[in-house]
Write a structure and sequence with these properties.
Layout (H helix, E strand, L loop, with lengths): L2 H9 L4 H13 L4 H16 L5 H11 L3 H19 L9 H10 L1 H23 L2 H13 L13 E4 L23 E4 L22
Helix pairs in contact: 1-3
């Protein structure tokens, strides 16, 4: 509906024919509620900003401000406008994380960050792969996959008995001189007899005391 028509409707400046026509449309068309609210809001703004003509001001006071509720509404809106004018909204400065987020949101920084991330991941992978402890564990895992049933395959290896003779002992430790070491060493664990199928044994192998 025409904005000027609704403005004059609230001001009571319409002739009887137009007034009746507007009222009838309002009753029949629920979709006009939004237009009515907007027209009323604009009229109040014009009144408070002193943008109404003298004739419109008189009509506003005589025809619009006829109820106590409307007068209270005008006073409330006036107070809000006064407060807003005296206390302008200060834009909050972005925090540290917001600045970082905005920085990496730029296309050139996003590409650079992706490249740095790839380099970091490659560096971590390199460190993990070249970790001596990981290499040692990998070697042990590969050896555990081999068939150890044929001892003749290991006759060229240096043998170290973890327990002297056929008895378990915690008082004696066997050592292999470095010059006698081969690339691989056969560690032989002497187990007590008899052994039943339910017995288990735990062995720890350390390299350089680690």
């Amino acid at each position: 509906m025409n904005r000027e028509l609704l403005k004059n409707y609230f001001l009571g400046l319409l002739n009887p024919t137009d007034f009746e026509r507007v009222e009838l449309q309002i009753l029949e068309d629920d979709s006009l509620e939004t237009d009515l609210m907007q027209a009323e809001h604009d009229l109040i703004e014009e009144y408070l900003d002193a943008n109404l003509s003298n004739e419109e001001i008189i009509a506003f006071n005589q025809n619009y401000l006829v109820t106590k509720e409307r007068r209270k509404q005008i006073e409330f809106i006036r107070l809000l406008k006064t407060y807003a004018e005296k206390h302008p909204l200060i834009e909050a400065k972005p925090g540290f994380f917001e600045k970082i987020k905005a920085l990496f949101a730029r296309p050139q920084f996003a590409v650079g960050f992706a490249s740095i991330l790839v380099l970091i991941l490659l560096g971590i992978g390199f460190l993990i792969y070249n970790n001596p402890q990981n290499k040692f564990e990998s070697e042990i895992a590969e050896l555990n996959k081999k068939d150890l049933s044929n001892l003749a395959d290991f006759k060229t290896l240096k043998i170290l008995n973890l327990v002297p003779e056929s008895l378990r002992s915690v008082d004696k430790i066997n050592f292999l001189p470095q010059k006698e070491l081969t690339d691989q060493v056969l560690l032989r664990l002497a187990l007590p007899a008899p052994i039943n199928s339910e017995q288990t044994f735990s062995v720890s192998i350390l390299q350089n005391g680690k």
